[in-house]
Amino acid sequence: MAKQPRNISNDSDSTYSHVLKYTGLFGGVQGLTMLVSLVRNKISSELLGPSGLALVSLFNNVIRLSNQASNLGISFSAVKSVAELSEQADSYKQAEIVSTVRLWSVVTGLAGMLFMLALCNVISYLTFETSQFSWVIAALSPVVAMMAVQTGEIAILKGLKKLKSVALVSVFGAIFVLAVCAPMYFVWGVNGIVPALIASNIAYMIVTLYFSNRAMPWSISFFSKDSYVNGFPIIKLGVGYIIAGIFGEGAEYAIRNLILHYGILADVGLYNSGYMLAVTYAGMVFVAIEADFFPRLSAANNSAVKSNAIVNQQIEVCLLLIAPTLIAFVIAMPYILPLLFAAKFTGAVPMAICAMGYMFFKALTLPAAYLPLAKGDSKVYMLTELIYDVFIAIAIPQAYRLWGLEGTGWALTIAGAFDFFMIHIAYRHLYGFRFDLSKSGIYLAQGALLAIAIYTSFLANICIKWVVGIAVFLVSLFVTFHILKKKADVMNMLSSKFRKK
Length: 501
Hints:
Largest sheet: none
Shape: globular
Order of helices and strands: HHHHHHHHHHHHHHHHHHHH
């Protein structure tokens, strides 16, 4: 790796502290949200069972895919557009861009709703191989419009740097969703899935609008030509991101449907619960990527040296934070998965353990994956995402067909390794990105510790499982704490937090 200029080197400690601070902030918020989500999933799994959760998963896939196909990337591109003007003192331009974002959010949301409504028969047949769910798809179509409004308002809050409000929306939104869904599942069971999805999205949208309206009072004009015209640059920026999102949702949609084709509906529910625990919950370390890391990377996109430094610092912090977390998940997985869902979900335990390698590779890949977006190179971003999504859409169902649910976990890990090599090789050639090989010893050590934990988790001897598992966890935690203590002065950061309290 090229030698860094003195000014970057001198700022490295403060940069590590900055990365750790915002990763901790959003990770803590995500932890609270996750706790509420875990309670909701526990209640849902007890009341609905694997087949009921599979239906929730499939319906949510349909909704997200329709939303991705229609929102034109506003949820992502609007953050940058609003943030650029929020730095200026011109309150009129700020209000104008916010009004434009809101207008396009509503318009694209309505378009997505009509799209889903018009194709309800086709979507039902593609998803369930029958048209009898057409009325369900039609009933859920307003949720697409609500999601467009929600994501647009969250983008405005991020652009205005109202990160506390973003955090509060996440926490209170999760609480209200739990408060709405649990009674409906208890009273109506599986028949309560559709009204629960609609009512919970209404609740989440109300929470979002409350906080965003406090930051910038609601103002929108459906008949303003300027508002439509001003939205074109935002849409142009977001098209690549949203097409990549469609690829991702399409791949997840294909995976779940092929598992259903090769197996049974309950296995879709087991796969979804294992994926949720291994990928969604373990991935809370990454929640600061878009809110804090992406704007910093965008500001430095004209300098390969600065971009390399920012990406490699983010990779190091993400990997160090997530490695002990993954080992802890592996050790406790046989106990926490049935506890958080239900005893009938224990079949997902091997799959979730095997998928932990995917999250390890994701920590090494995700920060670098934002390089083309920071440089406005949406075509490269779309191409790499498409290649990856095609890979998992083929690999995971085939692994399920050959080796069952455990095979899907290994397929996810292989997909993570494939994505890592593809991204780093391609972006080295295209953008001059250099992976910091001086840290490879740390990464290999943490990877080896995780591999040992995964291997011992499949041994029959419970004593060996716990002794080895706890040992590798403590070693991983020590390595993480020791390195971050040197680079970010963790002790002072923690003590200052307690002093404030």
